[in-house]
Amino acid sequence: RKEVEQDPGPFNVPEGATVAFNCTYSNSASQSFFWYRQDCRKEPKLLMSVYSSGNEDGRFTAQLNRASQYISLLIRDSKLSDSATYLCVVNGAGNMLTFGGGTRLMVKP
Amino acid sequence: GAVVSQHPSWVICKSGTSVKIECRSLDFQATTMFWYRQFPKQSLMLMATSNEGSKATYEQGVEKDKFLINHASLTLSTLTVTSAHPEDSSFYICSARDRRDGGLEQYFGPGTRLTVT
């Protein structure tokens, strides 16, 4: 089993739609969780950290469910510019960051 | 703040040659830098962790004699791909952790695209 698993997608949604991604992780001792965004042929960029109580940043909402070991990212009112690959990142063994395979989102006009 | 640069941004080399990639933290000191490799449509795979002044720690399956890492200062780490072959063609990305930052955030460089012909 992979340490961090994501549905690779692609998720094809129209502009204005709400879309949600889930991610599961295997290390129950993990303490820190992040969502990164990666555009084609670019480096990953931190989108947001994920806190136990859940957190929101504009159109983006992240949730953490420790009991079920999954993390979610909700994007409301999708924009064309949201098209990218979203990487779920968890700190694993030795406090190293482990990346999921990414979920590709394509927002269409 | 927290800017990481990489040089070169892309390189094409012939099979059998060596290529050096530099990773610099521009406005902070990084005791730890990380080297990742990403093949098309795949996720980032950690290759090695580089600590200033000590030997790098390589992930399982990564040949340390082929991928030489030198972390000579708090702002510079280099990755040398020795005797490169076409299968080494990939996107190499470094990241750095700010020594003052007690968290886990890593700041990524823009990546280096290596093509071996």
Write the layout of secondary structure elements.
The complex is a heterodimer of chains A (109) and B (117).
Chain A: E1 4-6, E2 11-14, E3 19-25, E4 33-38, E5 44-50, E6 55-57, E7 60-65, E8 70-75, E9 84-91, E10 97-99, E11 103-108
Parallel strand pairs in A: 2-11
Antiparallel strand pairs in A: 1-3, 3-8, 4-5, 4-9, 6-7, 7-8, 9-10, 9-11
Chain B: E1 4-7, E2 10-13, E3 19-25, E4 30-38, E5 45-51, E6 57-58, E7 67-73, E8 76-81, E9 90-98, E10 107-108, E11 112-116
Parallel strand pairs in B: 2-11
Antiparallel strand pairs in B: 1-3, 3-8, 4-5, 4-9, 5-6, 7-8, 9-10, 9-11
Count of individual beta strands of chain B: 11
Q: Level of helix content of chain A?
A: under 10%
**Total number of helical segments of chain A?**
0
How many strands, which pairing sense, and closed or not: the largest β-sheet of chain A? 6 strands, mixed
Task: For this entry, give a set of tags.
heterodimer; A: 109 residues; 6-stranded mixed beta sheet; 5-stranded antiparallel beta sheet; 11 strands; 0% helix; 54% strand; B: 117 residues; mainly beta; 7-stranded mixed beta sheet; 4-stranded antiparallel beta sheet
What does this entry show, briefly?
Chain A has 109 residues and is mainly β. Chain A is built from no helices and eleven strands.
Describe this structure in words.
- By secondary structure, chain A is mainly β.
- In chain A, 0% of the residues lie in helices and 54% in strands.
- Chain A has no helices and 11 strands.
- In chain A, strands 2, 4, 5, 9, 10 and 11 form a 6-stranded mixed beta sheet that branches.
- In chain A, strand 7 and strand 8 form a beta hairpin.
- The mean pLDDT of chain A is 92.
- Chain B is an all-beta fold and 117 residues long.
- In chain B, 0% of the residues lie in helices and 53% in strands.
- Chain B is globular.
- Chain B contains no helices and 11 strands.
- In chain B, strand 5 and strand 6 form a beta hairpin.
- Classes of the chains: A mainly beta (109), B mainly beta (117).
